Amino acid sequence: MQEHASLLPIIIALPLIGFLINGLGGLFSERYRSLKPLIGYLATAAVFVPFLMAVTIFLGMSADSDPIRYHLFTWITAGSFVSDIAWRADQLSILMMLFVTGIGSLIHLYSMGYMKEDVGYWKFFAYLNLFIFAMLNLVMGDNLLLLFLGWEGVGVCSYLLIGFWYQDMGKASAAKKAFVYNRIGDFAFLIAMFMIFQHIGSIQFDAIFAGISTIPTEAAFWIGLLMFIGATGKSAQIPLFVWLPDAMAGPTPVSALIHAATMVTSGIYLISRMSGLYALTPDVMLIVAVVGALTAFVAATIALTQNDIKRVLAYSTVSQLGFMFLALGSGAYIAAMFHVITHAFFKACLFLGSGSVIHAMHHVEHELHHHGKHVHFDPQDMRNMGGLKKYLPSTYMTFLIATIAIAGIPPLAGFFSKDEIVAMVFNAGANYSEIYFVLFGIAMLTAFMTAYYMFRLTFGTFHGSFKFPKLHPEAAGSEKYLHESPWNMTLPLWILAGLSVVGGFMGFPDFVVQTFAGADAHSNWLHGWLIMYVSEAELTLAKSIKWGILIGSIIIASTAVYLAYLKYGRDDVAASDAALQNRFGGAYQLWADKYKLDEIYEGYIANPIVKLSDKVLAVFDLKVIDGIVNLTAGVVNFSGSLVRYVQTGVVSTYAVYFVIGVLLVAGILLF
Amino acid sequence: METLLNLTIYLPLLGLLGVLLVRNNDNLIRWVSLFTTLATFALSVPLLLNFDVAGSASVQFLTEGRHFVPGLDIQYITGLDGLSLLLFMLTTFFAPIVILSAWNSVHKHTAGFYAMLLLLQTGSLGVFAAMDAVLFYVFFELSLIPMYFLIGIWGGEGRIPATVKFFLYTLVGSLIMLVALIYVGYDAGMKVNEGVFISDLRVWTGPEYLIGLEQQTYLFLAFALSFCIKVPLFPFHTWLPFAHTEAPTAGSVVLAAIMLKMGTYGLIRFCLPMFPNASEAFAPMMAVLAVIGIIYGALVAMVQKDVKKLVAYSSVSHLGFVVLGIFALNTTAVQGAVIQNINHGLSTGALFLLVGMIYDRRHTRLISDFGGLSSVMPKFAVMFMLATFASIGLPGLNGFVGEFLILMGSYNSVALNSGWYAILATSGVILAAVYMLWMFQRVMFGQVTNDENKDLEDLNPREFGLLVPVMIFIIWIGVYPKLFTGYSERHVHTMLEQSKIKGDVIAKSADASDMPKWAASLYDITDDLALK
User: Fold this and answer.
1) DSSP state, A616?
2) Nearest CA to CA, how far is A82 from chain B (Å)?
3) For residue A3, what pLDDT band results from cuts at 50, 70 and 90?
4) pLDDT tier at A640 (50, 70, 90 boundaries)?
5) Does A612 sit within 8 Å of B482, measured CB to CB?
């Protein structure tokens, strides 16, 4: 147990060392940059070895063991404020550590194939390692400030990786947008931290947990709300989610690792960490739940209308994160963490699968150019695809498995975690406030849409016929250039698909086994693992209601899949989309326009501020403030003569004037 | 050791003579200057190593020289304490870097240029080491004169108006300070020195010398005004963008890294311990100006078209944080202000160095003339990004340490008595990301659209080498700030505690019937007689 504490700094240090070696090596040595296998394996090992260490720690832990700590040194201190560089592994953070390093390793391996031809290969792996370093600090930090270091650190890595192909100004803008939206959240996070220190006198987690009950209710409300606002930035919730779809400008492995599996779940982690505080403020809980449910719904509606495969997945991620916040707001921290983990499996698998598809489409473009046909098309647009299952069998199978998982079909992973969430929302409706029943309805509707748009995506991409040659006559016969990705890309896909199949059993619902094996049976391992650690709401629903919700979930998901098959399973994506558009009319247009949020933010907030600064403040600075200075008329004359002396370079004259002036004043004062 | 301290202060003057001796050989001039500044730095290192951290509240390496003027207690006193040590070191540290940065960019009156830089160094070192107010004033002025000429002679096209503006502002500030200084000298003489004028700072800030509330008000305003012009605090900042923009790179770096710090240093050195009641009474007002400066500076920085102007306005914003920290009047925030002084010097100094490097290549400072530089200058891009993120206040780099302590301290400040200052100031972290990253994007990202940028040479070994030490400290302070904040912790804590005691004594002995109504209400003095 505690003897594993010395592993913690090594877990943190290895990715940092990987970053330094690859980063400095690549920066200074042209030759090093060409050693791609070395760079790739080094970076992967720098994440995989920490994974093995995390497994070791995990195996030595039990549900009731004390946190493991490692204190390195005191970081920032002044007056009564102290913060340390110290890490902890407890029941909550070890789960995060496991899947950050585990999925991180798989995505590193995948990237060795995906980024093979890129000139910035070394830089890419350096950034990825740096990201893992920051993310591990976020989840392992023993105090809020170190968590914040990780929090901002992952933001920077996200910035660097979204803007990885910085020569494209659009991508650079997306990177800046992500960073700025995150900073809005960070602003709230910082103030929450100030308030916690004000009331507790420490930002170390154990001290916070011990002192939470002393925080006055009003302060708890504000701290809880501010932390949640912080989370809406990083975890892409209303109103700050608009950066995440744009973040798809980054290379696809980045979308899988940062913008689906790990970084964007930090907000959920933060709130789970602070669950004791949220237990004090039911008002904030309700706000969290409402925002989560609305985000889930809004993002799902947008996802219905998108044709860029990565954008569909991006909105799907926003929507699934909304589910997690809905869970948090319903007091279902364990269900939220459960969904964080299962979502990491299937969404990483989906993103990597989309990467494999894009890789293949790029190859087609490349081959066409090679053969002198200059066809330009969007390799991420679903309308160019179709029928890919024949050419990319592994990608297809894994993508399909992950789609079934996210759609909520049992016994795949997504079904269990989503079912636990909706049950807990219903439970909150029964125990706290009727508003939760409304949220339950929204959640069910969103679950329906999720299954529907995900199968639309899968059918549109892999079923039917390959559309591209039909759209571009020049590209006739180009299907022969389609090929499956190399092993280092398909292996991670299969592992993730496997996890998407079995991952749900870590949280197999107790009531199901209890129905068959008596009231003492327990099958929900995750629940037992975390229950000591979070302020989980008590589930008081009758067994029959739980069964009702479970069966209802299955029916809704199956119906959605069947409808999606009817509409999109027969090579008629465009026609079905048009039909959908006709049916929903203005609403569909609103979804397709992404609710015009970007335009609203830009038009009503960003642009007015820039305009105000440019046309008012900057002018005010020159004309008014500076003008008052210039208007001192008598002085202007004097300065005129001064100028001449400076210009002629007669330094001594000026110095004499200066001395005379000082003496004069001194004389007046003295006598 | 005290000899070493004085040697460090005056060695640059010796180098100046050397420069004048070889004034016709540009190459020799550079080497003499570089050697001098390196030697100065080498001499200052033992001071740092021998500094007694536990005793940082009192002056170390003390020289108490003879009186300058018969009949007046104006002495030559130099020494370092927790407040001045790091600023002193920052000055010796930056000097060789500044000399190297100008290596190939000065083509007229080379000897004069380097002579001015060396004179400036002695002036700056003197300011931080002086422990006598008159001596402080002399060095303060001494450091201004070379800066006038650096901007006026070696500056850009708009250098003349910029110099005039710089001159007017600082002249006004200096004269006001001089008046107040002479007043305090006599007042202190009257009260604690048998009627003889005294300017020993240890006496001025010591526990025996008490200043009445009404006088405190005027004197505080006089000192604060002259230092706030120097900082510069909104609305006294308009000289800075002009001076920074027109100054040669070396001048901008010294201005940002060293000279602006004299203002914030002065506020802590003079105002807090001498005028404890006034500092507390005016804390909210100062904090309001600081917060306006933070947000206003950031917004104006955002829309600048000239990179140097943008960095200059960002200084207005960053130094607003420092002033906010000072007037939060608790150890956490003042410690934040002290370290932020150093941090701003490092990161803004680095930014000016970097901007200077692309100016040397392209002779333009307009953001729109650049674009896509990352592809042609990868090493430059890495350095620029580090400095940018340090300036934005990214945790793990130096800027965060100071900003965080300032905000944390001022949020919980008793003197300010409201979290809103800190909350509004924190919005500066959003704006900083906006203006810095927007600029970075326009300069560094995208395609190279301007043909003149196609073949820009990446950093040469000299440029790379002079940036590396700055970057080392940017990271070092960010990762292990305790080493640096430790130097001033004891000093700041003791100073604040003693000022508090002193302020209480003064307030207790004050009598509402003896002072004008405004003073009584400003200092919350109730009319004891009326109560009786």
Assistant:
1) I
2) 10
3) confident
4) low
5) no
d(CA B351, CA B383): 9
Model confidence pLDDT, tens digit, residues A451-495: 999 999 999 999 988 888 888 888 788 888 888 999 999 999 999
**Contact across the interface for A642 and B426, Cβ inside 8 Å:** no
Q: Name the one residue in this structure whose structure tokens are 């060392």.
A: A17
* Contact residues, chain A, for B160 at CB < 8 Å: 643, 646-647
Pairing of strands B60-67, A81-89: unpaired
Least Cα distance to A482 among A354, A388, A398 occurs for A388
Find which of B170, B182, B412 to mutate to test the A interface (most A CBs within 10 Å of its CB): B412
Q: Does residue B414 belong to the interface with chain A, where contact is any CB pair within 8 Å?
A: no
Strands B75-80 and B60-67: antiparallel
Using a CB-CB distance cutoff of 8 angstroms, which residues of chain A are in contact with residue B304?
A: 618
* Sequence letter at residue B494: T
**Tens digits of residue pLDDT in B187-222:** 999 898 888 899 999 999 988 899 988 889 999 999
Alpha helices in B363-377 (DSSP H): 373-376
> If you search the block for the tokens 């004034």, which residue do you land on?
B23
Check residues A520 and A47 and name the one with the higher pLDDT: A47
The string of pLDDT tens digits covering residues B136-193 is: 998 998 888 889 889 988 888 888 888 888 887 888 888 889 999 999 999 999 898 8
- A·B CB contacts under 8 A: 186
The shortest C-alpha distance from B532 to chain A (Å) reads 39
Q: Which amino acid is at A202?
A: S
Distance set, CA B152 to CA A654, B354, B403 (Å): 12, 22, 34
Percent of chain B with pLDDT strictly greater than 90: 64
- Alpha-carbon distance values, A184 to A229, A240, A241, A558, B481 (Å): 8, 8, 12, 40, 26
Neighboring chain A residues of B300 at a CB cutoff of 8 Å:
613, 617-618, 621
For residue A71, what is the enclosing H or E element? strand A68-78
Whether this prediction's pTM lies above 0.95 is answered by no
Q: How many CA atoms lie within 13 Å of A454's alpha carbon, on the beta-carbon side?
A: 32
